[in-house]
Structures are given as C-alpha cells and as structure tokens.
Glycosyltransferase family 15 protein
Amino acid sequence: MAGHQRYLRYIIFALICLILLFFISSSSSVPSAQWPSYKPDGANEAETSPQSPKEGQEQPKPTTTPSDNKKLPPATAPGDRMNATFVTLARNSDIWEIAKSIRHVEDRFNRKFNYDWVFLNDDDFDDEFKKVTSALVSGKTKYGKIPKEHWSFPDFIDQDRAAKVREEMKEKKIIYGDSISYRHMCRYESGFFFRHPLMLDYEWYWRVEPSIELYCDIGYDTFKFMSENNKKYSFVLSLYEYVETIPTLWDAVKNFTATYPQHVAEGNSMKFLSDDDGKTYNHCHFWSNFEIGNLNWLRSEAYIDYFNSLDKAGGFFYERWGDAPVHSIAAALMLKKEELHFFNDIAYYHVPFTHCPTGEQYRLEHKCHCNPKDNFDWNGYSCTSRFFETNGMTKPEGYEQEQ
Ligand SMILES: Nc1nc2c(ncn2[C@@H]2O[C@H](COP(=O)(O)OP(=O)(O)OP(=O)(O)O)[C@@H](O)[C@H]2O)c(=O)[nH]1
Ligand SMILES: [Mg+2]
C-alpha cells in the first residue's frame, strides 16, 4: 500500500511539472512587442502614433522631398473667365497624340483655368476618343461633326484638273501634295472651323494639334491678355512657306484687295509679308498649328469676303494652299499691326520646330524644360526677326547667342 501511494505521489509530481513546463513554454512564444512597454512616466502613450509631434519639441528635418515648406499654388486661378475655348480638329486615330497635347496644355496652363475644349472631325468621334479626352480636359468637352458641305469639293472645282495637280505634286514629292484630305483640312481651317455651331458660343479660341508640347508654365490667362491688350491674332513660330504649294496665292490676295480695298487695315503689317510694298510675297507666315485668336474677327464680313474670294480662285485644290499663309496674310493685312501678338512666353513644339523663350531668367522662373539651343526664332529660316522689325520691337537680350 505504501509503495502504491509513493507511485501516486510521483505521478502527481510529474503531472505538476508537465503543467508548469507547458505554461512556461507557451508564454515565451508570445511576441514581446505585443505587451505594453514599460513607461517610466506612466503615461499610456503606446496607443498614439509614433509620428505625432510633441508640443514644443523640434521636429526632425525630412531627408526626402519635399525639401522645403513652400505651399503649392492654388489648383485653380481665382477670378472670372473669358468666353473662350480650345479647339482641335482630329481623327479618331489621333487619340493618343492629342492625349499628349492635352496633357501638356493642362499641366502648363489649363488646370488653373479650366477652359472648355471643342473637338471637330469630318467623321463621328468614337466612344474611346470621347472617354479619354474628356477625362484629360479640366473644362467641358464638346464633340462636333463637320457638315459635308464644309469638307468636300465645291461645285465650281474642276475635278480632273485637281486630280492632275495631285499627280504632278506627287511626282515632285511635295509634302501632302497628293492628299485630298489634307486639302479639305486646310480649306476647313481657313474658312469654316470658326463657323461650326459649337464654336458660335465662343469669342476666343486656342488651336491645339496632336503631338505638340508646351515647355514652360503659363501663369496668367492668355485669353484675357488678348482681350485687355486689344489683340486679335497671335503666334509663337513663323517661317517661310514652300513656294510650290502657293504659286498663285499672292495674285489671289491682290485680286481680293483690289475688289475690297475697304477691308485692308490702315497701319497693317504689309512689311512682314512683302519686301516691295506688296508687289510680291516673301512667303513669311505665322505657323497656324498654334493660334490664339478672336473668333469674331474670323466671322467678320471682311474675313468672310477674303476667304470666299480665295476659295473661288481654286488654289486650295489646284495648288495646295495651307491655312497658315491664308490666316497669316489676312491677319497681316486686315488687322492693325498692334492687334497681332508674339507670345514669347509660350514655349512650344510642333515637329520639327521649337519656340523656346529667349532669356534664362524667364525660363528658370517658369520651370521651362526646353533647350534654348533648339529655339528657332533667330534662325535664318524664321520670320520672327522680320516681325520685330515691322513693329519696331527690340529683340530680347541674348538673342545673338541663339542665331
Ligand atoms: N478630322 C480630321 N482631321 C484631320 C485630317 N487631316 C488632318 N487633320 C487634323 O488637322 C490638323 C492638321 O493636320 P496635320 O496632319 O497635323 O498637318 P500638319 O501640321 O501640316 O502636318 P504634320 O507635320 O503631320 O503635323 C491636325 O489637328 C490633324 O489632327 C482629316 O482627314 N480628318
Ligand atoms: Mg500638325
């Protein structure tokens, strides 16, 4: 019996040891970090965020960006807006190239002003084009189809003659020389875009093409600038037109000015267009893939008479007149020279030319990312020097180094 009791004591002792061992091993597997740490001041601060600063205590300097405490400017510029819109002529296939352009325009300017954007096409815009562009534009977007009669051969055009010209231009390898659609595009931009029903709501436009770039911040309302300074038409790049595309354009212009002398402005910019007081055209023009301008001027009787007169001459189809010389000649002859504006501060690229503002201080202050060596303004093929001379303007400091 005594032996039996001893065995029972051994078993109970062994059980107690096992239970103790179990508790010791299971408690050491609990991660120590889960237990509240010992705080000598007794405060229960383990529950607050380790980042929250203590009052009166200097905060550690951040070692990564942002490196300074400057606040970002307000997202949207305060104040009223002009009756203005961006306008783009495009095909559905231009979607990703126009997306890039929009991104540049929004980042550098329109995110602060939220102006509308009108898209025009000779076909219906598809859903993808609308979805992507409306997501990128900060203002309202509108999509318009061009009426057939504004994108087709007028009945006074001899189709055989036009076809023969296209063949000849193809042989001569003139750029877009054999293209019908390019001719419709040039004629549409010359005489119709500003009359599209969607454009009738607006007074000012800024034309944007696919694949353009903007290189500097534009911190003010360019439309307001145009209005307050009595400007009607503006440019950033100017150059000489291919002679082969406009052999008889100047004759048609002279025919117009002889028929409608009342539409020619006093104090115009003839000196920009001609070196012999109007006898011949020097082929200088403002590059119209960028334009900020006044739609009411384009819709005026003077401009419509001008367009109709050129259209009847047939050069949009019998030659390959571009909307750039057509707009430029109109602006230079039918506006006072003070109504034209050169936007030195809008840094711009459309293949193959760059306008990068002359003046390092400006470029630094406006976060420009263009290489000043690429600036075309003072190159021999640019007409911008001639514009400065026509207007008695002093060229910006440092222009000699960019020639
Ligand atoms: N809807 C439509 N838009 C066109 C057509 N052809 C050109 N465009 C647009 O008209 C504008 C001028 O055409 P571009 O092809 O850029 O002509 P360009 O600037 O002389 O030549 P690039 O050096 O090719 O840019 C652009 O906004 C084009 O998207 C067309 O057939 N249909
Ligand atoms: Mg283009």
The chain has 14 helices and twelve strands. Residues 23-56 have pLDDT under 50 and may be disordered. The two ends are 120 Å apart (CA to CA). The pocket of magnesium ion (ligand 2) is lined by residues 209, 289, 350 (CB under 6 Å).
